[in-house]
Amino acid sequence: EVTLAEGADVTDLAGNALQAIDQSVVVDEAAPDVDLVTPSERTLVDSTDVLDVSYRYTESGGSVQDVTVTLTQAEGDASYTYAVDSSQYTGDGATKSLALDLDKAADTLTDGAYTVSVAVTDDNGETVSGATAEPYVVVDDEAPSVSEVTVEPNGDVSTDANIDVSYVYQNVTD
Known about the structure:
By secondary structure, the chain is mainly beta. The chain is 0% helix and 45% strand. It is rod-shaped and about 115 Å long.
């Protein structure tokens, strides 16, 4: 930091005098504010679907440098991060919508429930994120299974007889 006294006579080696400059600087210390809009309820997809995600953010000061959307498995360690081209967006609080091609993450996204988070980083490197409160996205690529089927009675029955059928049904979404 250099401080010059008022009325100081400063010149360079060529004899050029210092010109007074009145410059104001705005320091942006606030990270953008992010709100994840959708999904806001349980959404069943398979790993080749497209997932609609909507979010909004407000940036006071600079501009947004980077936006990512991450799906994180609730029980397990699988996750996938999508980089979002945010160049067409402004941080004005308007809702932004995009369709994530889950097929690009087919090697990573396994069956199970996922939370969705959006992270926004501004020009100053300040990052903030918003996420679903629960794992709303359920990836289900497996057909349900039915096992242990029993029928009572197990012989010939009349057309007006009652038949009891029991089974075990299993699905990843249960």
